[in-house]
Structure to design on (194 residues):
C-alpha cells in the first residue's frame, strides 16, 4: 500500500469517527498540517505514532495500513457462520462458531454442507412438554450409523453424540427458532428448521 492509499484510509476513518484534522492532531500531539500531509499522501506517520493513530481511529494497525477495515458482521452473537467438521479416519467431530481451517489425523477437514432432510434421512420432531424429541429411522450398525444430533439457535447449541447400536432418538430442551442437524457417517449432514 502506498502513501496515497494510506492517506485516503486515514481520512476516511477520521471522518467516520467525526473527527476534524485538528481534533485528531491534538490526540496525537502533532499539528493539523501533519494530518493533512498524511491524508494527501505527501508523508507517512512516524512509526511511534502507528499505535496511537490506530487507537484514535478505532482500528488495528494492520487494518490501517492494509486499507481493509474488518467489520464484525456477527455482532449479536448469531451462530449463522457455524460449521461442523468430521474426521473420516477417527470420527472426531469439530464444531466451529466461525470460519476456520481444521485438521485431524494429518488431513485437512472440509466444512460439511448441510442438505435438507430427505425421505431416507427424514427427521421426526415431536414437541413433548418443553422439549423436542427428535428421531430418525436409520440403521445404527458399526459401519453405518448416525454420529450426532445438534440443535442450533442464534445464540446456543445443544449437541448429542450417538454411537452404533444406540437408539437414534434424542431430546432437546426448546431454545427457540433454530435448526436441528443430524449426521450420517455415510451420507453426510442433514438439517430441518424448527
Amino acid at each position: 500500500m502506498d502513501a496515497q492509499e494510506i492517506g485516503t484510509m486515514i481520512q476516511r476513518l477520521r471522518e467516520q469517527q467525526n473527527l476534524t484534522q485538528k481534533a485528531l492532531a491534538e490526540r496525537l500531539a502533532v499539528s493539523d498540517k501533519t494530518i493533512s500531509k498524511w491524508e494527501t499522501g505527501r508523508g507517512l506517520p512516524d512509526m511511534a505514532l502507528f499505535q496511537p493513530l490506530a487507537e484514535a481511529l478505532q482500528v488495528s494497525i494492520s487494518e490501517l495500513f492494509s486499507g481493509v477495515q474488518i467489520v464484525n458482521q456477527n455482532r449479536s452473537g448469531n451462530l449463522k457462520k457455524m460449521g461442523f467438521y468430521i474426521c473420516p479416519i477417527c470420527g472426531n467431530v469439530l464444531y466451529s462458531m466461525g470460519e476456520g481451517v481444521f485438521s485431524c489425523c494429518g488431513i485437512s477437514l472440509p466444512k460439511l454442507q448441510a442438505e435438507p432432510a430427505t425421505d431416507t434421512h427424514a427427521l421426526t420432531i415431536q414437541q413433548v412438554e418443553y422439549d423436542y424429541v427428535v428421531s430418525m429411522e436409520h440403521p445404527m450398525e458399526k459401519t453405518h450409523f448416525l454420529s450426532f444430533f445438534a440443535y442450533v439457535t442464534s445464540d446456543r447449541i445443544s449437541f448429542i453424540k450417538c454411537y452404533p447400536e444406540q437408539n437414534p432418538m434424542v431430546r432437546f430442551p426448546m431454545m427457540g427458532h433454530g435448526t436441528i442437524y443430524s449426521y450420517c457417517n455415510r451420507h453426510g449432514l442433514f438439517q430441518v428448521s424448527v
Remarks:
- The mean pLDDT is 87.
- The longest strand covers residues 146-153.
